[in-house]
Amino acid sequence: MAKKILSAAVLFLGPCVAPAEAIERIYCASSDPVVDMSLESGFSSKDQEKLVHFRGMAGVKDKATPAGFKRFQINSEMLRQYWIDERDLRFSIQAFAPADAPLYRVTMSMRTNRSSDTAMQFKGRYELKVENLKMGSIVGADTILDHEGAIFCDVKR
């Protein structure tokens, strides 16, 4: 008897249950005395973990920052790593300036999370490092600026 009641309840209530909505776009922003940044990332509507695009703008306001990073465009080619699951969102980017013969590197990593898998905002921190490359090598570098700040991301469906 219990099986029949459970089966009837599932058949009756099943159509009322809404499917989970996938994240399609995330907008992130940060503004503090050292950095102004905005990012947009798009994810596949079929596979929430598949990144479709990644772009944005950033500006490093510190006086020691090379001209190439005072204001620069962020694109998918700069993305080194990303991670997204129900509660965590992480990105890591790397850019070089000047593009044709790199003398400087900027690395930015962000780690955010949200209070639940249905919350519409991720909150977290970003880490920024600006380095002077040694003799044009991308291996050795002297740190010009090392900074950490808050970042917020909003989910758009």
What does it look like?
The model is unreliable at 1-20 (pLDDT under 50). This protein starts with a helix and ends with a strand. The chain has a single domain, classed as Lipocalin (Beta Barrel). A hairpin with a 7-residue loop joins strand 2 (35-43) and strand 3. The chain is built from one helix and nine strands; from the N terminus they run αβββββββββ. The protein has 157 residues and is mostly beta strands.
Task: Fill in the keyword field for this structure.
single chain, 157 residues, mainly beta, Lipocalin, 9 strands, 8% helix, elongated
Summarize this, please?
The chain is mainly beta and 157 residues long. Helix content is 8%, strand content 54%. A hairpin with a 7-residue loop joins β8 and β9.
The overall strand count is 9
Spatial arrangement of strands, main beta sheet: 4-3-2-1-9-8-7-6-5
Mean pLDDT: 83
Low-confidence stretches at least 5 residues in length (pLDDT < 50)?
A: 1-20
Question: What is the element layout, followed by pairings?
Answer:
Elements: H1 2-13, E1 25-31, E2 35-43, E3 51-60, E4 72-74, E5 79-84, E6 88-97, E7 104-113, E8 121-133, E9 141-156
